[in-house]
């Protein structure tokens, strides 16, 4: 779907605003935040809007934890993510892989690469500090 084919409705604008000001919310989180802006908007409208925005290339859907709900990202250009395994926070990052190594990997595996995405798992600073200084 061509991004210009999407008409800008108040609901679509609200979803885009939430995605632009948030750090990778789930659909349920987008719904909650949109309902603060537009009381009465339904879940089906928000979920359908998210699917349309992804299809139109105006948002990206991420799956960073197996079994967790998908998350949405307003940044559609290639980028990577730091993923906290405790609080589940997802933060944008930029990881550069060596082009020569990628070419070698493609040659060794007879795999035609079209892109890559990196998710680095660990603990965010807040969770790391909390586990070092547990409340007693």
How would you summarize what this structure contains?
This protein is α+β, with helices and mostly antiparallel strands.
Write the layout of secondary structure elements.
Layout: H1 10-21, H2 27-37, H3 43-55, E1 60-62, E2 71-73, E3 80-84, E4 90-93, H4 99-109, E5 119-122, H5 125-132
Parallel strand pairs: 3-5
Antiparallel strand pairs: 1-2, 3-4
Q: What attributes does this structure have?
A:
136 residues, alpha+beta, Arc Repressor Mutant, subunit A, Dna Ligase, domain 1, 2 domains, two-stranded antiparallel ribbon, 5 helices
* Alpha carbon gyration radius: 18 Å
Strand order of the largest sheet: 4-3-5
Distance between the termini: 54 Å
The whole-number mean of residue pLDDT values reads 89
Category by helix and strand content: alpha+beta
Global outline? flat
Ranges where pLDDT stays below 50 over 5 or more residues in a row are none
**Number of structural domains:** 2
Number of strands: 5
Q: Note the main sheet.
A: 3 strands, mixed
Helix content estimate: 40-55%
Walk me through this protein's architecture.
This protein has 136 residues and is an alpha+beta fold. It has two domains: 1-76, Winged helix-like DNA-binding domain superfamily/Winged helix DNA-binding domain (Arc Repressor Mutant, subunit A, Orthogonal Bundle), CATH 1.10.10; 78-136, 2-Layer Sandwich (Dna Ligase, domain 1), CATH 3.30.1490.190. The protein contains five helices and five strands. The chain has helices at 10-21, 27-37, 43-55, 99-109, 125-132; strands at 60-62, 71-73, 80-84, 90-93, 119-122. A three-stranded mixed β-sheet has the order 4-3-5, with no helix packed on it. Strands 1-2 form a two-stranded antiparallel sheet. Helix 1 (10-21) crosses helix 2 (27-37) and helix 1 (10-21) packs across helix 3 (43-55). The longest helix is centred in the middle third of the chain and has 13 residues, at 43-55. The N and C termini lie far apart (54 Å). The mean pLDDT is 89.
């Amino acid at each position: 779907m061509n991004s210009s084919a999407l008409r800008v409705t108040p609901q679509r604008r609200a979803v885009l605003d939430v995605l632009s000001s948030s750090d990778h919310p789930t659909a349920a989180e987008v719904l909650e935040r949109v309902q603060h802006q537009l009381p009465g908007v339904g879940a089906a409208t928000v979920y359908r809007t998210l699917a349309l925005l992804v299809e139109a290339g105006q948002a990206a859907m991420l799956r960073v934890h197996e079994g967790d709900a998908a998350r949405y990202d307003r940044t559609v250009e290639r980028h990577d993510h730091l993923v906290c395994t405790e609080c589940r926070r997802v933060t944008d990052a930029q990881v550069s892989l060596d082009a020569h190594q990628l070419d070698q990997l493609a040659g060794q595996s007879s795999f035609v690469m079209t892109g890559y995405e990196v998710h680095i798992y660990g603990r965010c600073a807040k969770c790391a500090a909390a586990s070092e200084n547990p409340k007693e």
